[in-house]
């Protein structure tokens, strides 16, 4: 079935920030891979909650508390359904970084003997192995480095080919009987390539390893069914999918969440407490200590509804067309090197590139002077940039509100970078 056509020009009217000029030029926003913009519907949903039902959830007997709890749990159901999960399988987090750290520290707690006897399945011993990949965001690398350091586990990596795709032959060797955890990204935030989740999950399941998926760059752009993908745990961030800052989701298979020890402890996640010990609620509340991001959760549910109304398949098809147009133009500009330009690879609307002879920061400032917002630096993926022999790149990332005019403005501006800095073609 051919997805419905997306009218990005009409959708742009829902995004107040896109109506402005920057440095005397109409804003061309191509940094949604870092932070997407929010439509009026999301801003209004959070405003309506804050002005009509703002109260602490799960603990008050008064009317506002009950209404706030309904909004909060209704939002959980909406967001969980968006990724194919049941509400009890979705833990509210501040974002993917916290979610991955939560999992890593919870596993560390199991290693320390905390939690129910069933938690021992997660415990690591010296010589056990944690596997990540060469293309990970630092948020899906450093927590595992720290867990390995605390437990004596060994951290191993699946390498990437020169075109940015993962070396799956190497993956089959790296993931071994000693592997206990396999953590990897669904879509690289530098390369835009969609990784073979099912194949990696199969390799992990063959040896009984836990799988942890970073879905930050896939949730806004692809139809996502986390249970169907077979992953044990997954994280995503609201601010990358038209939602507020400070909220995201940790998905977990029920049997995993039910036996994983808690990480943060305190109020709202307990059953009974004495001066000497405490009992913990079942998931998801077990992992939601303290006051939660209630208003942002309501905003994220509104963002999910907005994406669903636009049509996730239509969004992906629209962004794919723009990405193809962007690639076609970039490869024709002298001195531009695309990262992850793998022929035939499935991808989202994101391209990172190196400008020969011009530092990425200088290139970004040149583009900004023309009203074009892109990302520059190593994008929290320094090892991957080192793999490609560079320290930084320019990244242009698309969202449902971008148009052909945005892409053409970028291409026209990029063609002027090297001449402006006096670099010979």
Automatic annotation (TrEMBL):
Residues 28-410 form the Aminotransferase class V domain. GO terms for molecular function: cysteine desulfurase activity. InterPro entries: Aminotrans_V_dom, Aminotrans_V_PyrdxlP_BS, Cys_dSase_SufS, PyrdxlP-dep_Trfase, PyrdxlP-dep_Trfase_major, PyrdxlP-dep_Trfase_small. Keywords: Pyridoxal phosphate, Transferase. PROSITE patterns: AA_TRANSFER_CLASS_5 (PS00595). CDD domains: SufS_like. It holds the Pfam family Aminotran_5. It catalyses: (sulfur carrier)-H + L-cysteine = (sulfur carrier)-SH + L-alanine. Its cofactor is pyridoxal 5'-phosphate. Its EC number is 2.8.1.7. Catalyzes the removal of elemental sulfur and selenium atoms from L-cysteine, L-cystine, L-selenocysteine, and L-selenocystine to produce L-alanine. Belongs to the class-V pyridoxal-phosphate-dependent aminotransferase family. Csd subfamily. This is Cysteine desulfurase. It comes from Microbacterium dauci.
